[in-house]
Design brief:
single chain, about 280 residues, alpha+beta, Split barrel-like, Pnp Oxidase, Chain A, 8-stranded antiparallel β-sheet, 10 helices, elongated
Length: about 280
């Protein structure tokens, strides 16, 4: 089944590109990618943070006015705001007490280079009252994300929450970046597929490398030598490919949105079969 990009290549779009010295297949690929389904920025940012692994760089305002960065653990509270357990011995704890303005930078799970996603949450952090329901909820969320963090109950640790969220900045890889408001971020849902991205991608890369290449050709319209699934969500997959010695990422949309692991399997099976039919 041909995609719209492939249809454009078969008609005037490819011929025009050829006249200008541009590879028609590449021109069709670029047109396809411009309209390829991707998560809205707010949803992608919130999902990336939720699935990141629970560590980030907290930037605080130092006593001399210069910013400082500390690697900290965090969890996502029920309201979507990050919660933290800070020790009184840490410099960032003292800096937050003096000036709550911070940014928390979180890298996507498996981050390797500038082509991978990252999110910065800009706002204010404040301490939660000891023994309050909010502190108890923060403890529950944190221990769910970090089960071995027994030290959170030591006397010199206290609970903190990002009490206000001003701006959220997403860099989703090359040529994909934007900002949303804190309210937009908090109102977005977490993607239901991203939490099991790693095992699905691992399976596809280990056992179905040829099918990955075929799906890219049939669905995206680009001939590649290798195709490695990097991540998936309810709308599609981000795939690392090599073509003529160059490595880059592309977007491989599902035929329709999916909501669970079975939906992902069904989508991949359908696209693999369609690719086999195209190649026959």
């Amino acid at each position: 089944m041909a995609s719209r990009a492939e249809e454009g290549h078969d008609t005037g779009a490819g011929e025009g590109a050829a006249d200008q010295g541009v590879d028609p297949e590449v021109a069709a690929f670029q047109a396809h990618q411009a309209g390829a389904a991707r998560l809205p920025f707010a949803e992608e940012a919130r999902s990336l943070v939720a699935c990141s692994g629970g560590y980030g760089v907290l930037s605080t305002v130092g006593a001399d006015g210069h910013p400082g960065g500390s690697v900290v653990g965090f969890a996502v509270g029920d309201d979507g705001r990050p919660v933290f357990s800070f020790s009184t011995l840490s410099s960032h704890t003292r800096e937050v007490a003096a000036d709550g303005r911070v940014s928390l930078t979180v890298l996507a799970a498996g981050f390797q280079d500038a082509g991978d996603g990252r999110v910065s949450l800009v706002g204010e952090v404040g301490r939660l009252e000891e023994g309050s329901p909010e502190a108890a909820a923060a403890r529950d969320a944190y221990l769910k994300a970090h089960p071995s963090a027994f030290w959170v109950d030591f006397g010199d640790f206290a609970w903190y929450r990002m009490r206000s969220l001003k701006t959220v900045r997403l860099v989703g890889g090359f040529a994909r970046a934007g900002s949303v408001s804190g309210d937009e971020y908090l109102a977005a849902r977490e993607d239901p597929v991203m939490p099991f991205s790693a095992p699905v991608c691992g399976h596809m890369n280990a056992d179905h490398a040829d099918a990955n290449v075929a799906m890219v050709k049939a669905s995206v319209g680009l001939t590649v030598q290798t195709a490695t699934f990097a991540s998936i969500d309810r709308l599609g997959a981000n795939v690392q490919v090599t073509r003529d010695g160059q490595a880059f990422k592309l977007r491989l949309p599902w035929l329709a949105p999916v909501e669970d692991r079975k939906g992902v399997k069904d989508a991949i099976v359908a696209m693999t079969r369609a690719a086999a039919q195209d190649a026959a």
